[in-house]
Amino acid sequence: MRPDLIDQHIAAMTTASTNLLRQMRDEGLRYRVIVRPEDTATMHVHVHQLTPEIAERIHRCLAGIGMRVDVQEG
Question: What is the pTM assigned to this prediction?
Fold first, then answer.
C-alpha cells in the first residue's frame, strides 16, 4: 500500500473508532487508539483501568470495522 494511503487509512480508522466509542468516553472511559503503519489490520486500544466487562463492550462496539481489535491496559 502506498504510504499516503496508509496514513489516510490510519486517520480514518482512528476517527471511526473514536466516533464509535464516544458514548463510552462520555461515561468516563479513558483510552487511546493506535493503528501502526506496519500493521494496519490491527487496532490497538489502550484503556485506563481496564476490566473484562469494558474489554467486552469495546470489542462489541468495534465489531465489524474490518480490523482486529487488541484491547489492553494502558
Answer: 0.89
